[in-house]
Amino acid sequence: MSTTATNASTDANQASTAAWDPIFDELNFPKDPDNMYAQTVATMLHGAEVVGLRHRVKIILAQPKNELMVHFPVKMNDGHHHLFKGYRVQHNNALGPFKGGLRFHPDVHLDDVKSLALMMTLKCALVRIPLGGAKGGVKCNPREMSVDELERVARRFTSAIQHVIGPDYDIPAPDVGTNAQVMAWIADTYQMSTNDRTSTDGMRVVTGKPVEIGGSLGRNKATGQGVVDVLVEMLPAFGIPIEDMRVSVQGWGNVGSWAGRILQKLGAKIVAVMDHSGCLLNEDGFDTEALTAYCQEHGSIAGFEKAHKTTGSGKDTSKGAQPISLEDFYKTRVDVFIPAALEQMIKAEEASYINCRVIAEGANGPVTPEGDEVLEKRGIHCIPDILANAGGVTVSYFEWVQNKTYHMWDEERVDAELNRIMVMAARRTLVAKQKYDVPMRQAAYCSALEHLGAVYRVRGIFP
Ligand code: NAD
Fold it and tell me: Which of 31, 65, 236, 418 is the most buried (most CB within 10 A)?
């Protein structure tokens, strides 16, 4: 190892502890160490230091290009009007159009959205697709809204942000609390509100659409599939065979349930699951298809252990399932833990008793910097979000390309192209890990930043 690499490694390891950088003073950042945006920027800036990114690129990446906050009224079913708050943050478009999900959740805050937008820029750079980074959302609770109310919120929000999005400028996608149906309402509203109503090109304004209106085959499962593609590529190096591997999953929504179902098909056992309603254990391994069907019908995993449905072969789908506490969920011994719910859920405390060998971050930002430090000390490998969950934006990119070229790929082609991109990104991360002698999260950031640095070098900065 070279001296430079050793110094880089020390610097990078300090990155997780020291969430401060002179650029924070230069840009007047608020001094709150628990602020997720400051944490994400700190990790990015330390990666930038390691790869020797120029100051001008660092300051550009430390702040989003545009931040839009909107307030809009929606008539609720009981007749009263509720004023909603929504955001669209466009972090960077040096690589291509802004791209990133829309989240409908009560905890949507500007700084978290900014943080997620920055991660999107890095994610697209890591997997080398020609898209930039953005994120958005509406502060609301879809679980407490009727379908009609949800549709009115989606359409009215679209009308509030339609002047900043566009099929070749900023292309939203699903995230927590939104899905293909919400994307269909957004696409329809956008197309009806823009000048050229005779063209269906406006429908390209979102990805993750239903297949009937131009969605890509394989997009629904793409993020979970990408998590699995990266695991299959990396697990041999950790000496973990997939057959009979024990897995726990936090969040049984789009990402978690697809990752769980695909892993079960490959022979793994999903032994613990958790969502907003609680945690369940099944030492024999869950019937993941039955659990997903139950969840879709009931809105959560709560009560699955009492459902006792019988399969065609006479098997009880809930056999062996039992509720457990949150602490027991984390302490359940597994080979792989997949956080696929919200950010900042694994802090130092959870990291100190989590009982796994590898974490594959299906969610964005599920581990705090303090949590990261504890995991690092305990020798737990963490496959970072911008690598592990990049399958979603990758197939979104495929959807956008299919729409632009009026083609439709079959699912085999989508899966094969996705696998190729995920495997390349995993290898790129391992190369950076070795080159800079840094933990895997820092390595993924370094590889993404090398690419962004190269793009800024050749593009230059206007004027
Ligand atoms: P989703 O809404 O489909 O599912 C979210 C899951 O998290 C649900 O099971 C919910 O019960 C659970 N959850 C919510 N609050 C929780 C809490 N406090 N404790 C435990 N569980 C809780 O969302 P999703 O699309 O699966 O996204 C999950 C994560 O993956 C998010 O971080 C998102 O940004 C990230 N992600 C999603 C995609 C995608 O394509 N959908 C792509 C990349 C990253």
Answer: 418
